[in-house]
Design goal:
Strand order of the largest sheet of chain A: 3-4-6-5
Order of helices and strands of chain A: HHHEEHEEHEEH
Number of helices of chain A: 6
Mean pLDDT of chain A: 78
CATH architecture of the largest domain in chain A: 2-Layer Sandwich
Radius of gyration of chain A: 21 Å
Largest sheet of chain A: 4 strands, antiparallel
Distance between the termini of chain A: 44 Å
Shape of chain A: elongated
Low-confidence stretches of chain A: none
Oligomer: homodimer
Largest interface: A-B, 12 and 14 residues
Helix content of chain A: 40-55%
Number of strands of chain A: 6
DNA sequence: GTATATAACGCATAAATATCCAATTCGATG
DNA sequence: CATCGAATTGGATATTTATGCGTTATATAC
């Protein structure tokens, strides 16, 4: 019986990456993913996930996750950018220098901007190097803490 | 008969300033505003306004205007660009040629790109002429329909 | 183990929404 | 003025979504 939680995750994923406009088609997709339930259950799932149905701008409507969910999802992708690109961070005073894999400085820089870490005043990205200017009153340790919580699984 | 436009404005206003979660209550409110229509008509109105139904975060769902109703202000200015510049459209197969007032092709082309009509695959603007490539499966009539709804008060 | 509570679910059905079709009106054109 | 076409609407109905209720599995307490 206890398959609800997993199913919810799958439903969320399906909604995020497909244009779905009714529960029956979603039901089908769920079936191919191995979850066979009824429309009644799915209706309850959607309510639980706070899924909305919004206009595509011209012809019809489709399901969409609430804004908060989307933001945190896109945030995940930025975190991935950081993980993928970053090589090291070193500090000098209230400046930091991040080394990245060649060509990755830009995507990492953008990701850091988007994540809006409170310790960072601004960034300047070249090709494989990013300048980080710390905000007044912040230091190396503050930023490293922030990194550890916001971008797990990175060692410096 | 011609009360649609006014009614749409009222519907929009009602949705913006109330928490409404089904068409029947909206129907009631409309009646007190002096518009007596059926649910069928209201359903069409909502689709036309691109109204969505989204979660309130806990218990239920309510109607909401699309986000880009905010953007629609800037959109209005693009629509103005089109109105100001366009002279004629003619088609040949799945290509269209738009003639504009001299020097206006660019602003009209940009506007068309921003408006993102689903029928248009791409545009190429000169000085007073724009090439329009229709998307596969779309035709002259589709685009003209879209024009009529998105950019009212233009005759071809 | 047995009784009791609860969560998760399906079935049937209610409620809500969308659409097909025909009727009416308004405008343009001959 | 007659006619044609497009727009708008209502009535009936189809489609889509939500929910009341009973059932079963799982957990908790005795």
């Amino acid at each position: 019986m206890r398959q609800r939680h997993n199913r919810l995750t799958v439903v969320k994923e399906l909604i995020k990456s497909n244009r779905i406009d009714n529960q029956d088609t979603l039901l089908e997709m769920l079936k191919t993913e191995g979850y066979t339930v009824t429309q009644a259950t799915l209706s309850r799932d959607l309510k639980m996930l706070k899924v909305g149905k919004i206009s595509d701008g011209w012809s019809g409507y489709y399901y969409a996750l609430p804004d908060n969910d989307l933001i945190s999802e896109s945030e995940k992708s930025y975190i991935q950018d950081v993980r993928r690109g970053i090589l090291s961070i070193e500090f000098s005073g209230n400046f930091g220098v991040i080394k990245t894999r060649p060509g990755h400085a830009n995507s990492v820089g953008i990701a850091l901007d988007v994540l809006a870490l409170p310790e960072i005043l601004g960034t300047l990205a070249g090709d494989d190097t990013i300048f980080v200017i710390l905000r007044e009153g912040m230091n190396k340790e503050d930023l490293q803490d922030s990194f550890k919580t916001r971008i797990p699984e990175i060692e410096e």
